[in-house]
């Protein structure tokens, strides 16, 4: 990890003013929770609208010879289909390495002839270097903050401040004027709820955030609840659930790789993934519901009924919406079927659990 | 005599006769955040001063609770199993973890009293 002083987002002072508990995360000093606490923040996001500072994430703009040239340059590094994006359409994807492992996961939105890309904070410097070293015309945008407004009331809040946002559907982006501030928003997020991720110039980030927090439905939410929300939604955390050592096939992310790319290849690790689709994989990412009350945290060993180790939990904790522990992890393919009984070895004791369907909390996206 | 003593690891112990009631401090629960799971020792177990006695888990993480004194577990607060948030609501009272049979009064030596603990916690900021 990087050392040295922690970086701050443009909202640092506001977080402190709001009483946030600040913790180091990916080289930034970030709010893990506000005085309400993680449980209340989680539940507020599921019931109304939560506002998250995700300005630590990397925002890139990618250009090329027209949109197709730009998208084609990125497709050399990602197995996903970005060339077919229509203007304003957003898609999930990832960078792969020669072994088919995942270097980072990301969101891409087409904006006219260019692509907007959002990547993980911990990977953003490496991602930028990776893109540049492969001749991609990429520009980092550290001059923009990123906020996520998430929850069943997010749509109503945004429609009040930016009427044009009401026309947006899940996984689309548009330039909006929110309470007089020009920004670029996508209707997407990391909670399983309807919501928006909004890119705002740093200089206006505080004013923008204060304006949103004035809306009665909106409360500030820290990274703690962001993690429990995404885990309930079955969404991967890079570095834990997906890494350089897991492929999209093992990670159950093949849905993000379109048929054209599967056939054509032309991305790092294409031969490995093709082989995995043809022959199967030895392990798979699955959801797991512990039967008792004890959470099974990341790195908890998963064993079968005979005590043989079959995998490991990669994310685990308490699911506030379910009121019980939830987890995801990798298990041997033979144990990956829904309902398979597994043992979770927590502090030396084998606790019963079952392979379970994800998401644990239903997705409630605004699809049309 | 039922003065409360504290450890540097933020457990408290309250002695009444040879019964020592043990829990985690108000400061500890505040630092942990919302408690969602408590693993208690079994009644009859011998715990050793400074060794793991219980586990408390918040949404974020699991933390060990160390025995502030050595002794046999005579009772546990089973109510915490169904209502772990009691630790947040009343850490010093209804959120107690276990009762131990005090074997050696000298175990209390070196633990902090209320004033010393307050000073210790203030120094952590």
Please provide a brief summary of the model.
The complex is a heterodimer of chains A (368) and B (125). By secondary structure, chain A is an alpha+beta fold.
Structure description:
The complex is a heterodimer of chains A (368) and B (125). Chain A has 368 residues and is an alpha+beta fold. Among the domains of chain A are: 12-54 and 143-232, Gyrase A, domain 2, CATH 3.30.1360.120; 282-356, Elongation Factor Tu (Ef-tu), domain 3 (Beta Barrel), CATH 2.40.30.110. Chain A contains 9 helices and 19 strands. The longest helix of chain A is centred in the middle third of the chain and has 13 residues, at 202-214. Chain B is built from 4 helices and 9 strands; from the N terminus they run βββαβββββααβα. Chain B has helices at 26-32, 79-82, 86-89, 114-122, and strands at 4-6, 11-16, 19-24, 35-39, 46-47, 52-58, 62-66, 71-76, 98-102. In chain B, strands 1-2-3-9-8-5 form a 6-stranded antiparallel beta sheet. In chain B, strands 4-6-7 form a 3-stranded antiparallel beta sheet. Chain B is globular, with a radius of gyration of 13 Å. The A-B interface holds A 32-33, 37-40, 42, 224-225, 228, 293-295, 297, 317-318, 320, 325, 347 and B 33-34, 36-37, 39, 55, 57-62, 81.
Q: Topology of this structure?
A:
The complex is a heterodimer of chains A (368) and B (125).
Chain A (H helix, E strand, L loop, with lengths): L11 H6 L3 E5 L2 E6 L4 H10 L1 E5 L4 E6 L2 H10 L14 E7 L5 E10 L2 E6 L4 H10 L3 E4 L3 E7 L3 H8 L11 E6 L2 E6 L8 E7 H13 L3 E3 L2 H10 L26 H6 L5 H10 L3 E8 L10 E3 L5 E11 L4 E9 L8 E6 L2 E8 L12
Parallel strand pairs in A: 3-13
Antiparallel strand pairs in A: 1-2, 3-9, 4-7, 4-8, 5-6, 6-7, 9-12, 10-11, 11-12, 14-17, 14-19, 15-16, 15-18, 16-17, 18-19
Helix pairs in contact in A: 2-7
Chain B lengths: L3 E3 L4 E6 L2 E6 L1 H7 L2 E5 L6 E2 L4 E7 L3 E5 L4 E6 L2 H4 L3 H4 L8 E5 L11 H9 L3
Antiparallel strand pairs in B: 1-2, 2-3, 3-9, 4-6, 5-8, 6-7, 8-9
């Amino acid at each position: 990890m990087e050392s040295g002083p922690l970086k701050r987002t443009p909202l640092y002072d506001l977080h402190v003013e709001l009483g946030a508990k600040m913790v180091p995360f990916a080289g930034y000093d970030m709010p893990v929770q506000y005085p309400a606490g993680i449980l209340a923040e989680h539940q507020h996001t599921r019931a109304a609208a939560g506002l998250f500072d995700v300005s630590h994430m990397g925002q890139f703009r990618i250009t090329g010879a027209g949109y197709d040239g730009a998208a084609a340059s990125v497709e050399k590094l990602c197995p996903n289909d970005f060339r077919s994006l229509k203007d304003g359409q957003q898609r999930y994807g990832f960078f792969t390495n020669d072994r088919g492992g995942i270097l980072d996961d990301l969101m891409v939105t087409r904006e006219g002839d260019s692509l907007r890309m959002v990547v993980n904070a911990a990977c953003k410097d490496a991602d930028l270097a990776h893109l540049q070293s492969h001749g991609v015309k990429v520009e980092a945008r550290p001059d923009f903050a990123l906020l996520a407004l998430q929850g069943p009331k997010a749509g109503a809040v945004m429609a009040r401040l930016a009427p044009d946002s009401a026309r947006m559907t899940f996984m689309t982006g548009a330039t909006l004027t929110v309470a007089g501030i020009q920004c670029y928003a996508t209707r997407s997020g990391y909670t399983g709820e309807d919501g928006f991720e909004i890119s705002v110039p740093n200089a206006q980030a505080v004013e923008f955030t204060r304006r949103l927090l004035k809306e009665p439905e909106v409360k500030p939410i820290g990274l703690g609840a962001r993690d429990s929300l995404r885990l309930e939604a079955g969404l991967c955390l890079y570095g834990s659930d997906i890494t350089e050592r897991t492929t999209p096939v093992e990670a159950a992310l093949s849905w993000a790789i379109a048929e054209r790319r599967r056939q054509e290849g032309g991305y790092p690790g294409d031969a490995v993934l093709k082989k995995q689709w043809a022959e199967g994989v030895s392990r798979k990412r699955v959801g797991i519901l512990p039967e008792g009350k004890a959470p099974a945290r990341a790195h908890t060993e998963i064993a079968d009924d005979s005590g043989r180790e079959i995998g490991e939990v990669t994310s685990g904790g308490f699911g506030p919406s379910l009121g019980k522990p939830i987890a995801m992890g990798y298990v041997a393919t033979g144990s990956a079927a829904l309902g398979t009984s597994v043992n979770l070895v927590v502090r030396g004791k084998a606790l019963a659990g079952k392979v379970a369907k994800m998401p644990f909390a239903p997705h409630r996206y605004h699809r049309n | 005599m039922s003065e409360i003593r504290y450890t540097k690891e933020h457990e408290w112990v309250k002695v009444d006769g040879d019964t020592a009631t043990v829990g985690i401090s108000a400061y500890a629960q505040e630092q942990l955040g919302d408690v969602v799971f408590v693993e208690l020792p079994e009644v009859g177990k011998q715990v050793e001063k400074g060794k793991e006695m219980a586990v408390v888990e918040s949404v974020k993480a699991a933390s060990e609770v160390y025995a502030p004194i050595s002794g046999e577990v005579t009772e546990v607060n089973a109510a915490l199993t169904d209502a772990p948030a009691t630790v947040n609501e009343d850490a010093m009272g209804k959120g107690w973890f276990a009762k131990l049979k005090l074997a050696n009064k000298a175990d209390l030596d070196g633990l902090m009293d209320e004033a010393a603990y307050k000073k210790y916690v203030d120094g952590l900021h």
